[in-house]
């Protein structure tokens, strides 16, 4: 055969996918011995140069990173910052990353990310939620290890690294309680995703330890669950403090409070979660639980590289804990209660 033989040529010759050819040549899972042998023989017959698949111990790993397009605004997105941390963590381990953002059309059609369909990476990180069928397709057809970042689901046969949502929000709620607050609202659409739900239950644990019941009217939505559009409405009877499921919600709340004539923290205290509020003046004042993105990225890279070397067969969720960043958005009202 004349010219340079590509994976696509072998796939068309045998009537299989490019991913199957790539997995067979690289020794990855998901290909039967019979099919793998047939691909190897065809590649040799067609003159394909697959020497690049004969990796040495010191070779650089190529890590794919996929993120849903709606999550991203370059320089102004929590997940863009997390991706930057993945780049740094991978570089420290002599590895490189290949990034791809996925739009709704691709997920709706069930099209694999290009970096996977063309066999360009050894393993992949999925940052943030996609639809379950789409994630399942990536996990099933990737041919290499898949690590989920900032979310998890028991339905997926892969590892996940997430913030310790339950403990983090428990710490925030306890912090507010220790500063004298007893009327504490939770701001977050609990039905939106597991992260918010875990944070809600951390809030409930904090209140329960102090014998304080959860008030239904103080569990507030922060977005439209169907569209994801952020929106904050104040309750009829105001609490003294808000525990916000993330800093973005805290920013929207702050704007709404100012609009209604409240001062923070003089009249109402506000605490957040993430330690990431881009481009908002309240970021400098907001007391918040820090999501340790650097540690999450470092842990995820370590898991993936060990999976590639067959050093770690454990599969599960790693919870990354962190600390509260104390600024100026929470008033200590303990003395006022005496």
Describe the structure.
By secondary structure, the chain is α/β, with parallel strands linked by helices. The relative contact order is 0.12. The protein has helices at residues 7-14, 18-26, 33-46, 78-92, 104-109, 114-117, 132-141, 165-178, 194-209, 247-259, 293-308, 334-337, and strands spanning 62-68, 96-102, 123-127, 146-149, 159-163, 184-187, 219-220, 241-244, 269-274, 287-290, 317-320, 324-325. Helix 1 (7-14) crosses helix 2, helix 2 (18-26) packs across helix 3 (33-46) and helix 8 packs parallel to helix 9. The radius of gyration is 24 Å and the shape is elongated. It has 3 domains: 7-53, 434 Repressor (Amino-terminal Domain); 62-163 and 293-320, Response regulator (Rossmann fold, 3-Layer(aba) Sandwich), CATH 3.40.50.2300; 165-291 and 324-337, 3-Layer(aba) Sandwich (Rossmann fold), CATH 3.40.50.2300. Strand 1 (62-68), helix 4 and strand 2 form a beta-alpha-beta unit.
